[in-house]
Amino acid sequence: MTQENAQNDQQINVELSEDMAEGVYSNLAMIAHSNSEFVLDFIRMLPGVPKAKVKARVIVTPEHAKRLLAALKDNIRKYEDAYGPIQNRSEEEATNFNFPMNFGGPGGEA
Description:
Elements: H1 3-9, H2 18-21, E1 28-33, E2 38-44, E3 53-60, H3 62-83, H4 91-95
Antiparallel strand pairs: 1-2, 2-3
């Protein structure tokens, strides 16, 4: 067995705490990069709140960013094979996107 095959057969024990398992909801992501890293900020925007908050920041190497892109493409393909195509917004819709003030629920009254 080659060293590459031996490495592929190794299992990684990943620990996931209860707090981390809950996850963080994000409806916006911003990506920046330098020559040595990519910075992914996951942001939550709330309706009627002019200030959005970064809920998580992940910093990765360029090589890892490329592997992440490949993994996302593979998972999106598998998702679409199972559930159908994900609808893309037109570029104009995406740049003019606004949250409804009440998220489709009843409006507040004072």
